[in-house]
Amino acid sequence: VPSTLLVYDYVISIDREIEYIWNRPRTTTTILYLIVRYFGTRTQPAFVSVFLSNVSGENLPDILAGKIFLAVQGWPSCGVLWLVQTILQLRLYVLYDRSRRVLLFMGSGFVVEIMAMAAILAAANATSGC
After folding, report:
1. What is the mean pLDDT, run by run of 10 residues, along the chain of 130 residues?
2. Which long-range contacts (CB under 8 A, 24 or more apart) does 39-48 make?
């Protein structure tokens, strides 16, 4: 069902995407948008294949199954999430008249979040044998 909704979203919004993204000059925001929109789509089959395959039990040891899960799901998901947050923070920065205070507040919170998420994923990698 999610894949069907994703394709449906692409079909109904392709005309607006061509008008507002592809026919305009490239900016940082449009490049980030394209990465999020199409990288997320490209990683979905990898996520599905890992979840639907029998990666534990007698086929693979549990340590290797954990490595595969973290490599396929953990880091790419965080990367897409961070890109989406970057886009939203750029929008807020512009909405608040390019206020340096808002930028510093959001930027410092974002850096703390990235460090925490990276530490959690690194700890998960260490405990799974990655």
Report:
1. 81 91 88 82 69 57 60 75 90 94 95 91 70
2. 39/76, 39/79, 39/80, 39/83, 40/80, 41/6, 43/72, 43/76, 43/77, 43/80, 44/2, 44/3, 44/6, 46/72, 46/76, 47/72, 47/73, 48/3
